[in-house]
Amino acid sequence: FRAVVPGRLLLLWPALMLLLGGQPRALTVAAVLIAYLAFWVSEGFSIVPWVDMVGKTIPPARRGFLFAVMHILGGLLGISAGVLVRHLTGAATDFPRGYGILFALSLAIITISTSALATLREPPSPPHEERYTTRALILDIPNLLRTHRQYRLLIVLQGLLGFALLPAPLYILFASDWLARFAETGPGAQSLGVGTFLAVQTA
User: How far is 11 from 32, CA to CA, in rounded Å?
Assistant: First the structure.
């Protein structure tokens, strides 16, 4: 929990910079890049404790339902987010304030998520007679992959999904150029293409 708070709060920096007009530009670009990097690094540190928390607080019979609801609601909200991006980054909102609004909305939603997580009380872990060192866990990875078929399949699917997401930045460039030609013309046409792409991708 402590690992995610700094990375999430740092999103306030680019939000304020963009809402105030994005000047100076170099500082605004630095704020966006640093906040984005810090956010994902902190999220990476928090994923293992989060999964451990789910394992301790959600009964095994209910975990499938939990993740199904998470993905369904996440998909529906993602489509809505694409429409919102299309509106806020289009001609209707002055650049770059629309992006500042998006950062601020993201921070507000993340704050709700963090507050909900803070209300959980983690049950104590049962004592373990044998404790694995980090080196022992790393050396045991081949054995885990060989003996646990479902775990092996999960790792393969996660890797394939990661590779599938690699060209996403190129798709954004395509959306901002080619898809904008099929949208309306004007200063916000490129952003309209990106918003449309995000909504369709999520669907």
Answer: 8
Cα separation of 18 and 155, whole Å?
A: 39
CA distances from 96 to 26, 80, 116, 162, 189 (A): 14, 21, 31, 30, 15
Please tell me the pTM assigned to this model: 0.71
> What is the token pair recorded at 80?
């809505």
Note the pLDDT of residue 15: 93
State pLDDT tens for residues 94-115: 778 888 998 999 899 888 988 8
Q: Which residues of 59-93 are buried (b: 16+ CB within 10 A; e: fewer)?
A: eeeeeeeeeeeeeeeeeeeebebbebbbbbbbbeb
**What are the structure tokens assigned to 119, written together?**
């209300």
Q: Cα 36–37–43 angle (5° rounding)?
A: 90
Largest CA distance in the chain: 67
